[in-house]
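To make the argument concrete, we let one protein speak, a sequence paired with a row of structure tokens, as a model reads it:
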Amino acid sequence: QAQLVESGGGLVQAGGSLRLSCAASGFTFRYTSMGWFRQTPGKEREFVAAISWSGGNTYYADSVKGRCTISRDNAKNTQILQMISLKPEDTAVYYCAAANGRDQRWMRGNSNAYDHWGQGTQVTVSS
């Protein structure tokens, strides 16, 4: 059974940084493209970043481009989202997701292309 567990969220001041981790198990992580999404109350889940199974291709939402870096360690079944220069509008619950491999829209952040989701980790950025 696929499982994704996020960690690393917390409270940080504007301009600060956070490093989110996602530990994966129950599926062949090294051949699975992965992504990060975020959601605030009353809003739809929003794409943040995605990475191909090899790590060779990465994709970012315009809102985080230049401030976020997605990476993965296939030997450790882990993906990382490094965030810098955080803004109050980055406040959200951040979710790790595994692409289903059938729908190529994963790279454009279409949530329907992702089959498995973590429970989320709260990121709060104070002004």
